[in-house]
TrEMBL record:
Lineage of the species this protein comes from: Bacteria, Thermotogati, Deinococcota, Deinococci, Thermales
Matches recorded under Pfam families: Sulf_transp (PF04143)
Protein name: YeeE/YedE family protein
Keywords: Membrane, Transmembrane, Transmembrane helix
Transmembrane segments: 35-59, 71-90, 102-121, 142-162, 174-192
């Protein structure tokens, strides 16, 4: 029988105090609806953390060993998210709130950003979700990477108009490219399947 590690009391206490404090702040600022969304996010994060479900690890394992189990799990997750969210995108609202996709054009800014993202992933040993995962696991090196994210984001705000003015194709999505949005959904699922 495999032994499981018991939770360490201090990190667990700090987590509970932080979650309680954040819950109170979220409730005071936005009420019960956002508080419920906050706890759904906390519980999903805990589930993914304990399942060791990282985005970069699946791709890394596939490229290094050829083992694709985690990569297939990612594709399944994308397909399920698409299936569950697609009706809301087509409808344009969910539970009385407007819903639309965040569509950005493919252009020079995206290519430069993708390159910088790759360099940052190599230097920081992971993407944002991986860094949060490692930091939450107690790896303090991730704190420096998080500080780098904050500084980089702040710098990006100051010259965002420059990047938005660079040449790019017109933005578009599967909802508008095909005669029926469901044809776009079928193509999406076919690519993932």
């Amino acid at each position: 029988m495999e032994r499981t590690e018991r939770p360490q009391p201090l990190p667990l206490l700090l987590f509970l105090l932080a979650a309680g404090g954040l819950s109170w702040a979220v409730y005071q600022a936005s009420g019960v609806r956002l508080l419920a969304a906050f706890w759904v996010a906390v519980l999903l994060g805990m589930a993914l953390f304990h399942a060791k479900f990282g985005f970069a690890s699946g791709f890394r394992r596939f490229l290094l060993t050829g083992e694709s189990r985690l990569l297939r799990a990612h594709f399944l997750l994308f397909a399920l998210a698409g299936l569950l969210f697609f009706p809301f995108l087509v409808q344009g609202e969910a539970f009385g709130q407007p819903v639309q996709g965040f569509v950005v054009p493919v252009g020079l800014a995206l290519l430069v950003g993708a390159f910088l993202f790759g360099v940052g992933m190599q230097l920081g040993d992971g993407c944002a979700s991986g860094t949060l995962y490692h930091t939450g696991s107690g790896d303090t090196r991730g704190i420096l990477v998080l500080l780098g994210f904050m500084v980089g984001s702040l710098l990006g705000v100051f010259h965002l108009p420059f990047w938005q003015a660079l040449p790019a194709w017109a933005p578009g999505s599967a909802l508008t490219w095909f005669p029926s949005p469901y044809l776009g959904l079928a193509l999406w699922l076919g690519l993932l399947g």
